[in-house]
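The record is kept unedited without comment:

——
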Amino acid sequence: MKKALSLAFVASVFAVTSARADDVQVAIDNFAFTPATITVKKGTKITFVNHDDLPHNIVEEKAAFKSKALDTDESYSHVFDKAGEIVYFCGLHPQMKGKVIVTP
């Protein structure tokens, strides 16, 4: 019984570690998304973190997702589960643009 529990525990730790390996971060700093273009695998979670002193948000150009206004050091995460190119911008500062390329 202990061996089965140990194997289950190892498997669950591996699954969590594997999921985290695909998580990435996009910084919001100096009125820009960094990196401005990022390529990820389908199912990747991207966390956008605002490092500016002013609020920003993330809006997908076709309104598939939209964050609330993020104050300094606040974040917003989204899982990109469909392959393709996703263009987004800051709804408060539309000149700020970024792109996510999602591969299968």
User: Anything to note?
Assistant: The first helix runs from residue 2 to 21.
